[in-house]
Design a protein that fits this description.
By secondary structure, the chain is α+β, with helices and mostly antiparallel strands. The protein has two domains: 90 residues, no CATH class; 162 residues, no CATH class. 37% of the residues lie in helices and 9% in strands. It has 13 helices and four strands. It is globular, with a radius of gyration of 20 Å.
Length: 302
């Protein structure tokens, strides 16, 4: 969440908002820059190389292995803090989602599923601190390494491609909505009734797996029953006061965050004031890391 001062008329247009939300490192549920994952080739034949046909026997063995491992197949990721997973049938995804994937004919023939991976709470950050922050985009790099290890261990033998992190734009929040992971909030960060806003989308993988599909998680928005709305009153820029009309004053938020002595440089007071999912709240260092990353983008572009 970005917080700021500004005149009452300081609203962003739809195109301006779309441009900002597409920027890396701005929103906590989609907050890290993109890098090319280690398993992707950089040549024009990368997709073809990843979907090389296998014998019917090899393919059947891989699918049988996947089905047998399904209850514990995500354990490797869980231990690394990547504790949110949703499996979709690729063919059943809405057309707008499929369009963003820009699949080749070969990929459409061999990939069966899209796997959305995220994290909630502090575990990923704790594991990453023990491992060490490496590279220009340490979280993306770590996640890519975890995905490669995962696909080469419990899912060994399957054809797969990591779409995100990567060079391709992916509608992560759209996928999260299809999974039922979040509801809109006044501070424009997705909120879940169990873990609040303290989660993020970390990876999207296409694979020829046959994992059990994840049903849509049905839940009521915690914001509906929230009477006091402490997030609205906590914002020093009053950027959320018109949230009931959907006119979030994003420009006011940006302006406040760029002030030299702003409390909003390395945190979002509105987000911190939300009581939902307090047990999953990031550490102060984790929060500061993400918001300082977003400030670099804001100062460079706005």
């Amino acid at each position: 969440m970005l917080i700021a001062n500004g005149a009452p008329s300081s609203y962003l247009t739809v195109s301006q908002y779309t441009d900002l939300i597409a920027s890396p490192s701005v929103f906590p549920n989609d907050d890290m820059p993109l890098i090319t994952p280690p398993n992707r080739a950089t040549t024009a034949n990368a997709a073809a190389a990843l979907v090389t046909p296998r014998s019917a026997q090899t393919q059947t063995q891989a699918l049988t292995q996947t089905q047998a491992l399904a209850p514990s197949v995500f354990d490797t990721l869980e231990h690394q803090g990547l504790n949110l997973h949703a499996v979709f049938s690729l063919a059943d995804l809405p057309p707008d989602v499929q369009d963003t994937l820009a699949l080749s004919d070969a990929e459409r023939r061999y990939f069966r599923q899209l796997i959305l991976i995220g994290h909630r709470g502090r575990t990923l950050w704790s594991v990453l601190q023990q491992r060490g922050m490496c590279g220009e985009h340490p979280i993306d790099q770590f996640v890519s390494e975890c995905i490669t290890q995962w696909m080469n261990a419990p899912l060994r033998g399957h054809v797969w491609r990591q779409v995100f992190p990567g060079s391709q734009s992916v509608g992560l929040q759209r996928l999260g909505s299809l999974a039922g992971w979040h509801h809109p909030s006044p501070f424009w960060v997705g909120v879940n009734e169990a873990w609040g806003s303290w989660f993020a989308y970390r990876a999207v993988v296409l694979a020829d797996t046959d994992l059990p599909l994840t049903p849509h998680h049905e839940s009521a928005s915690p914001c509906i029953s929230c009477v006091d709305k402490p997030c609205v009153s906590a914002c020093p820029a009053h950027a959320l006061e018109s949230e009931q009309t959907g006119a979030w004053r994003l420009q006011a938020c940006l302006t406040e965050r760029k002030q030299p002595a702003s409390e909003c440089v390395d945190r979002c007071l509105a987000r911190n004031a939300c009581p939902v999912g307090a047990q999953e709240r990031y550490t102060d260092a984790q929060i500061a890391y993400h918001y300082l990353q977003s400030m670099r983008v804001i100062r460079a572009r706005y």
